[in-house]
């Protein structure tokens, strides 16, 4: 039964750059550790399995072939034994897990967020709607079908990845579905210190505007991993810092000191009554909205490359009658 207080965990750890098996093991260990600390809701970083494509930020396209093929080989199919392992862990510990993966769908990769409910069911699979800058060399685009809130054991959970948070209509689509806990995903160890500063502003603003809790996880790279990705110290600067793992209240306040470097699991208790307290003053999709002037059109149809029609014989009899006239 849902309570007024939910214990949340935001995980900032390094992936295993050798592939998905090692990273999944780290995910399962982190779920167990967070659950031992009482966590009921656990968020991992953007495309954590097998790892974020850091190579695409610092390598020119002509040099990306080999690492891109490695990522394709180690990417996750949904469903698969890897996703089942996470589902089993969620069910065993009775926790809701939000995990970022590189999803392989035949010849394409997608930046995908998976929400596993506390009984292990996959409550939501969504793809980042627009990859950012260098990411467009790696991932395809998602669609509006995944831009939805999942009703879970801890409440109504929405999720966006990285710069999707700079698309106000994407965020508003989740607000209109009354998300109570928002899972944010960023890569971490990218761009430099300014990235972490921007993440903090973005997460606090969404919490205030949506009147929800934000649990945000960014990734981390060790010095050895940075050197493994590229030996040039100048290029290594592009894959350092930029971390801001944080948990924010609907009033825009940090509920624990954020993690900006190193590995760790951030834990905080979410007093769900704060949602009503905030929305009493400002409900962006309720009494503070003006739908007669401003509203959102959200196309929830999946984007597909093949359409079939088998509801009438060919040629269409109605069409043939028109031709006969």
Automatic annotation (TrEMBL):
GO molecular function terms noted in the UniProt entry: nitrilase activity
Alphabetical list of InterPro entries matching this protein: C-N_Hydrolase, C-N_Hydrolase_sf, Nitrilase, Nitrilase/CN_hydratase_CS, Nitrilases_CHs
Region (Disordered): 306-325
One matching Pfam family: CN_hydrolase
Ranges where the CN hydrolase domain occurs: 6-272
Transmembrane segments: none
PROSITE patterns: CN_HYDROLASE, NITRIL_CHT_2, PIPLC_X_DOMAIN
Family as reported in the entry's similarity comment: Belongs to the carbon-nitrogen hydrolase superfamily. Nitrilase family.
NCBIfam families recorded: nitrile_sll0784 (TIGR04048)
Name of this protein: Aliphatic nitrilase
């Amino acid at each position: 039964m849902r309570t007024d207080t939910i214990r949340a965990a935001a995980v900032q750890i390094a992936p295993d750059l050798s592939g998905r098996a090692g990273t999944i093991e780290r995910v399962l260990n982190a779920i167990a550790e967070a659950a031992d600390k009482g966590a009921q809701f656990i968020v991992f970083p953007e495309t954590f399995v097998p790892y974020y494509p850091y190579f695409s930020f610092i390598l020119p396209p002509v040099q990306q072939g080999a690492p891109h093929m490695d990522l394709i080989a180690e990417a996750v199919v949904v469903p698969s034994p890897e996703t089942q392992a996470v589902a089993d862990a969620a069910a065993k510990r009775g926790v809701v897990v939000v995990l970022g993966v590189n999803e392989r769908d035949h010849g394409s990769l997608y930046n995908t967020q998976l929400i596993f409910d506390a009984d292990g069911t996959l409550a939501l699979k969504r793809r980042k709607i627009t990859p950012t800058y260098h990411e467009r060399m790696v991932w395809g685009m998602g669609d509006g079908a995944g831009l939805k809130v999942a009703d879970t054991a801890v409440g109504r959970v929405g999720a966006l990845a990285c710069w999707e948070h700079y698309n106000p209509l994407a965020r508003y689509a989740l607000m209109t579905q009354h998300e109570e806990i928002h899972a944010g995903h960023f890569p971490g160890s990218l761009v430099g210190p300014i990235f972490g500063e921007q993440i903090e502003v973005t997460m606090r603003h969404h919490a205030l505007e949506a009147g929800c809790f934000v649990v945000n996880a960014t990734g981390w790279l060790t010095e050895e991993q940075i050197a493994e990705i590229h030996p040039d110290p100048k290029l290594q600067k592009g894959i350092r810092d930029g971390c801001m793992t944080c948990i924010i209240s609907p009033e825009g306040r940090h509920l624990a000191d954020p993690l900006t470097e190193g590995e760790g699991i951030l834990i905080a208790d979410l007093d769900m009554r704060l949602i009503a307290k905030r929305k009493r003053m400002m409900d962006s999709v309720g009494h503070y909205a003006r739908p007669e002037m401003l509203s959102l059109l959200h196309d929830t149809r999946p984007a597909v490359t093949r359409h079939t029609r088998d509801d009438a014989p060919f040629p269409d009899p109605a069409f043939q009658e028109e031709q006969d006239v």
